[in-house]
Design a protein that fits this description.
Elements lengths: L18 E2 L9 E2 L3 E3 L5 E3 L7 E2 L3 E2 L5 E4 L2 E4 L4 E2 L1 E6 L13 E6 L13 H4 L9 E2 L2 H10 L4 E4 L8 H13 L3 E6 L5 H8 L4 E5 L5 H8 L4 H13 L3 E8 L7 H15 L5 E5 L14 H14 L4 E4 L4 H4 L1 E2 L6 E6 L2 E5 L34 H5 L1
Parallel strand pairs: 11-13, 13-14, 14-15, 15-16, 16-17, 17-18
Antiparallel strand pairs: 1-6, 2-8, 3-4, 4-5, 7-8, 9-12, 10-11, 19-20, 20-21
Helix pairs in contact: 2-3, 3-4, 7-8
The structure holds iron/sulfur cluster (SF4).
Iron/sulfur cluster binds next to loops.
Length: about 375
Amino acid sequence: MITAGLAPRPPEPAMSLMMDAGEIDRSSTIRARHWHALDDGRIECDVCPRRCKLHDGQRGFCFIRARLGDELVLTSYGRSSGFAIDPIEKKPLFHFLPGTSILSFGTAGCNLGCRFCQNWDVSQARDSDRLTAHASPESIARIANATGCQSVAFTFNDPVVFLEYAVDSARACHDLGLAAVAVTAGWILPEARSDLFRWMDAANVDLKAFTEGFYRRLCGGSLAPVLETLVWIRKKTSVWLEITTLLIPGENDSDEEIEALSRWVVDSLGPDVPLHFTGFHPDDKMRGTSSTAPSALTRARRIAKRTGVRHAYTGNVDDPEGESTYCASCFELLIGRAGHAMTQWNLTPLGGCPACGEILPGRFEVRPGSWGDRVEGVPQRELVR
Ligand code: SF4
């Protein structure tokens, strides 16, 4: 059955994993925000709908939030699983500073347990060996600045679980005139959500499917809070929003589901929110499922456009037409792309269509960036400075 909207909200899935806190590196541990004590002596985390209830010494499902004594802590503050300099189109963000480079980083752990995770080595990491780089929020902003990036992405794993670190880093980015970008599944509770997005300039939110059954069965989560987050971002903030749906053969790729998802986006968020359909590659616990056929991505894009989504894209596939941006009024080519590289830039200095003048929604500069499709590591000298 296709989920039609925000109500009614089903019960959240029970927390299924709690581990002993064991040895925690106190040098990267800070008091967490968003939790409260329960009458039965446990502490409940108020960051995400899983609402882990912890005894002293236990970690939450995400592994990087834990109870130490009478407080909840984040155990990975200032520690990263790595850095990369990416084209911003790789996030994907197609309507936000096109052609520029973005400093990507993340920590470890995740509040969802997606069986198809394409970043499972980081998101499901249960050991601190993944957190190899020490980086304060100020040094992250400084590294981005020194390497010519215009923005920093909280990605690789969901910034929801390292909220305090992401927020402080986003503020440090703003201090240097850089933008902050959240790449997230949007499975977060309202108060924590306001905290996280207050300093964000753009977000790509995974809308993994449009049924509660998919979220429950394959992610151990739920759809309704994600829809609430999307509506809230769009209606209550100035954060630039794009959405990504990973199409998994036989799981979330029926015409009916894609049409329902697209219709909800148009009706609830408006037709200008870009929608990316990306291809699945067998990974993590779903190695028996085949890759998404390019034709399925093209079909999804057509359905979305027919339903009223003005800017629908394909991803993880060689499809210059599906990756390019066209005027929603007269269909003039505005931004040509091949993979993550820009091949054409036809926007006017005001960010409009040269043929009909229609303004393209998003954030654009007079001249696009020229980073291309390179993915580079961060020079060691920047990390140790
Ligand atoms: S953020 Fe982590 S500790 Fe908090 S409720 Fe979610 S999974 Fe549990």
